[in-house]
Design brief:
By secondary structure, the protein is an alpha/beta fold. Helix content is 36%, strand content 15%. The strands form four sheets. Strands 4, 5, 7, 8, 9, 10, 11, 12, 13 and 14 form a ten-stranded mixed β-sheet that branches. A three-stranded antiparallel β-sheet has the order 1-2-3. The longest helix is centred in the first third of the chain and has 22 residues, at 97-118.
Length: 416
């Protein structure tokens, strides 16, 4: 029997090698973004990838430039899976949003390079399209039901059929209790003060009002954002059943996932979870036991396109759909990665998309286009988007950019 022998390539120069890896930080629209650029030995050939962890951008840049670049220099950029596993395990301690975002930036950039070399858009490398575009949802917020309704109607007029509805922000902060008056003796702590009971009651009133005005045709969503205790989340999900939500998002914090079994047996309201997930064990059981209906990860927080494909394949086996995170603190590069996955996944559910302002399109030319509520991927090779580094430098990070006050993230300092 003939013995198979691998060809000897030891004496041959690789056709292409990684020559540089850097992390570009910029805030063109007032929101801090991180984009990784992987350069190659092929003149003019590079890839870009989203590594945006808005709340810890400097930490991500340090990982990319001080640790990943020395690790990746002179390696073959075609070996995406091999390099993903290498960078994933190289720090020994795995997962977490800082390391995963750094890894994601590299991973997305390598997929971008592979598409450019092949002369194909990324969705073709992922198996080709199963739909032409991804259905999206946008956000409607307001101080009262009428303001929310007005915003929903505006979005419907723009072609959207799915709308996420909030009243007073997450946890109805605008309707919650005020911070205790600090007379100098109480030592009141800074933060956003919430009244979970008032929020839950106001949410029921909101959706009762919206359904009465909109009928059943508009798909409505709501984000609890982990602002209530688990038992209160169960009660809220049950009380929302008559209004037939498309889904209820993040009713529980990652620390309370065991409560999903209790929630599942008590309500038929569809559940979306995963915005804060960074570890495969956080979603494996939820999917395999069908405790959720939509998996809602932030692609850069789980490590990029490579793990997102595997997650989607697992979810498809159990009838769980995707609903990738797509807020304003995802870079246009990240939005491009989202939609290439969306159009190539059989079990796609919905895509959050808050739009790309003109100033961002100047800094990030190319990318997806929104038409009548549907997001279309670029048909250019790779991700189909670029970054103008010269323009990006005009918009440095600042202490009071979105989510920050005096250099400190303020909106996550929530208190009851």
């Amino acid at each position: 029997m003939a013995r198979l022998v691998a060809p000897d390539t030891g004496a041959k120069e690789l056709a292409m090698r990684i020559t540089g890896v850097k992390c570009i930080l910029s805030a063109p629209a007032g929101v801090g973004l991180a984009v990784v650029k992987v350069e190659t030995s092929e003149p003019g050939l590079y890839g870009v990838g989203c590594a945006t962890f808005t709340q810890r951008l400097l930490a991500v840049r340090t990982v990319v430039e001080e640790y990943l670049e020395p690790l990746l220099l002179d390696r073959d950029p075609h070996r995406i899976e091999d390099l993903w596993q290498l960078t994933y395990q190289n720090a020994y301690w795995r997962n977490g949003p800082v390391l995963n975002n750094a890894l994601s930036g590299v991973d997305q950039a390598l997929w971008d390079i592979k598409g450019k070399v092949a002369g194909l858009p990324l969705y073709e490398l992922l198996g080709g399209k199963v739909r032409e575009a991804a259905a999206t949802y946008a956000h409607a917020d307001g101080r009262d039901p009428q303001e929310v309704l007005d915003r929903v109607l505006e979005l419907r007029a723009d072609g959207l059929s799915h709308v996420r509805c909030q009243m007073g922000g997450y946890g109805a902060a605008g309707k919650g209790r005020a911070a205790p008056h600090d007379d100098g003796a109480l030592h009141t702590q800074p933060g956003s003060y919430y009244d979970p009971g008032a929020y839950a009651r106001a949410t029921i009133v909101l959706f009762e009002s919206l359904r009465a005005e909109l009928g059943a045709e508009t798909e409505l969503l709501h984000d609890v954002h982990e602002r209530v205790a688990p038992i209160d989340a169960i009660r809220l999900a049950k009380e929302l059943e008559p209004f037939r939500l498309f889904y209820l998002e993040d009713p529980l914090a990652p620390e309370d996932l065991d409560w999903l079994r209790e929630l599942r047996v008590q309500t038929a309201t569809p559940i979306a979870m995963g915005e804060l997930f960074t570890h495969p064990l956080e979603w494996r059981t939820l999917i395999s036991e069908r405790l959720i209906d939509f998996v809602r990860v932030h692609i850069s927080d789980i490590g990029g396109i490579t793990p997102a494909r595997k997650l989607a394949a697992l979810a498809e086996s159990f009838g769980v759909r995707t609903a990738f995170h797509g807020p304003s603190d995802v870079s246009p590069v990240g939005h491009a990665a989202n939609v290439h996955l969306d159009v190539s996944l059989l079990n796609f559910g919905i895509q959050e998309f808050t739009g790309i302002p003109d100033v961002l399109r100047e800094v990030f030319p190319g990318g997806p286009e929104l038409r009548d509520g549907y997001l279309y991927p670029s048909d250019q090779p790779g991700l189909g988007i670029d970054i103008d580094e010269r323009l990006a430098q005009r918009y440095p990070l600042g202490p009071d950019m979105a989510q920050f006050s005096g250099g400190v993230v303020d909106w996550t300092q929530s208190r009851l």
